[in-house]
Structures are given as structure tokens and as C-alpha cells.
Write a structure and sequence with these properties.
288 residues
Length: 288
């Protein structure tokens, strides 16, 4: 007999990178289910605007996931304003694109700080509180890039592999504590992260709302491995049975070897410029 889904009404959720894209779509999906949502984002003004539009008592805070003190302040404010934290969605992430050997060390460090350390900080801050209460759920946003290697985003792949691995390990360490973990692995999603990229073969481009629905479903049904769209999970399982050359041949057939190396720089410029500005702003704050 199928297990009844959890009732999420009244639960408190904190979402990193929640002012746009998948984070904002998740905030909307959760609010629609009666959850109380706290949005954290580096862009405090945009986060506040998103919270006001959401309604339902949603709140917003400035959040730098690479700064543990900032992350702790975000969770503290969430609990002070909304109540004990039930769900943390580690969504914040960036994806610079370019050849690995041309990538600056600063760009690589920035990706690891946000995409990996941001997830680690979030779990180290939220999970002890959840264990103390005997319940809670952490959702870590990884990617199909956490299951394979894609030219043009080598360091991004490294970070997403790390998210998958740390999620599996922490899940094993926290079993029987009442805390659940999910790792969500989208393929291409229609957000600014894929601006300028080619259309992949064999897999449709998902919408942020598709990922948001998958996140909520994972919480309701306590699912760990979540692929978006679902056929990506089937492809991943199939690839696991193939030898190395077979996997590479399938990847070429799906254009996985070129989809992020033949970028339309003009269409992608706005995104790359924004994350470069944010990096500069954070450096200035740190120096101050």
C-alpha cells in the first residue's frame, strides 16, 4: 500500500538563492501548499520583492552562502520570524561556462565556495537543529552534471559530484534521527544558467516549476534520488550498464559533448556579467 504523502501545511522552509529561477518557483510551490517560506538571496532587494509578491507571511533576508555567519543569521531569522525550521532547500548556485584550461583560479574557487561549501554550511547549520527536534528535511540541488562530465563546465561538474556524494554520506550518517535528505538532479532547466546554450537531444528542457514540483514531491514522499525530468534518471541508469566507450558514444549522440561548448556568447553575456559583479561585490565586502 502506498505511503500517504506528508501534509506540508504550516511547515517552515528556508530557500537559498530564492529570489529567482528554481528557488523562486520552489517558494511559490511551497506557499501554495500552505508552507511558511523564508527566502535568502545575495540580492536582498530582489528577495524582498519576491517575498512581498508571494504573500502568505513569506520573509526575505540577504544571504551569502559562502559566509557561515551570514548563513547562520539567515536560519536564525527564519526561526525567529516563522518558527522552527522544517525544510532547508540548498538551491543557490552558479554555472560559469568555458574551457577548463582557460578558467581562472578565482572562478573555480567561487564555484566551489557557492555550489559546494554553501551546501555544506547549510547542512551543518540546519541539521543539528532538526536532529534535536527529531524531524526535518534537507533538499540539496545538484544536477545531472553530478553524475557525469560535460565539456565546458568541468569545475561545475566537480562541484555537483561533490553535492551528490556529500548528500549520500550525510544521509547515511543521519539515518534514524528523523531527518530526511533529498538530492535533486535536473538536466537543462529554462533559467539564465543555460542562456546561450544549445538544445540537447533526447531530453526536454524543464521549467523551474517542474523542478519545484519535484522538490515538493520529494519532501512529501521522502524520496532521495530525484531526476528532472524523470527520463534523465532512466538514461542515467542505462548509462551505468555501458562500458566507458559506450557511455561516451551515447553522450555524443545526445550532444552532451558540445551542448555547453558551442555557446552563444551574446545571449549569455548578461548572466556572466551579473555573477562577475556579484563576485566583485563580495570581495569588496570581505575586504571592508
Amino acid at each position: 500500500m502506498a505511503k500517504e504523502p506528508k501534509n506540508l501545511g504550516g511547515k517552515v522552509a528556508a530557500i537559498t538563492g530564492g529570489a529567482r529561477g528554481i528557488g523562486l518557483a520552489t517558494a511559490k510551490a511551497m506557499t501554495a501548499r500552505g508552507m511558511r517560506v523564508s527566502i535568502g538571496d545575495l540580492d536582498a532587494e530582489l528577495a524582498q520583492k519576491a517575498a512581498e509578491e508571494l504573500g502568505g507571511g513569506a520573509i526575505a533576508s540577504e544571504l551569502d552562502v559562502t559566509d557561515r555567519a551570514s548563513f547562520e543569521a539567515f536560519i536564525d531569522e527564519t526561526e525567529r520570524s516563522l518558527g522552527p525550521l522544517d525544510v532547508l532547500v540548498n538551491n543557490a548556485g552558479i554555472m560559469p561556462v568555458g574551457p577548463f584550461l582557460e578558467e581562472t583560479d578565482e572562478t573555480a574557487l567561487r564555484q566551489i565556495d557557492i555550489n559546494v561549501h554553501g551546501v555544506i554550511y547549510g547542512m551543518k547549520i540546519a541539521i543539528p537543529r532538526m536532529i534535536e527536534r527529531g524531524s526535518g528535511h534537507v533538499v540539496n540541488l545538484a544536477s545531472v552534471a553530478g553524475k557525469g562530465g560535460f565539456p565546458g563546465v568541468a569545475t561545475y561538474c566537480a562541484g555537483k559530484h561533490a553535492v551528490v556524494g556529500v548528500s549520500e554520506a550525510v544521509r547515511a550518517e543521519t539515518q534514524d534521527t528523523g531527518v530526511e535528505l533529498s538530492v535533486v538532479m535536473p538536466s537543462f532547466v529554462n533559467t539564465e544558467l543555460i542562456s546561450g546554450a544549445e538544445q540537447p537531444r533526447g531530453v526536454k528542457i524543464a521549467e523551474p516549476e517542474d523542478v519545484a514540483d519535484a522538490i515538493v514531491h520529494a519532501i512529501e514522499h521522502e524520496r532521495f534520488d530525484v531526476f528532472v525530468p524523470r527520463e534523465v534518471g532512466v538514461i542515467n541508469k542505462f548509462m551505468g550498464f555501458l562500458p566507458r566507450r559506450g557511455r561516451e558514444a551515447v553522450a555524443r549522440a545526445l550532444k552532451a559533448d558540445t551542448v555547453l561548448t558551442t555557446i552563444d556568447d551574446k545571449n549569455r553575456a548578461a548572466y556572466e556579467e551579473r555573477i562577475a559583479r556579484e563576485t566583485a561585490s563580495e570581495r569588496e565586502r570581505a575586504e571592508a
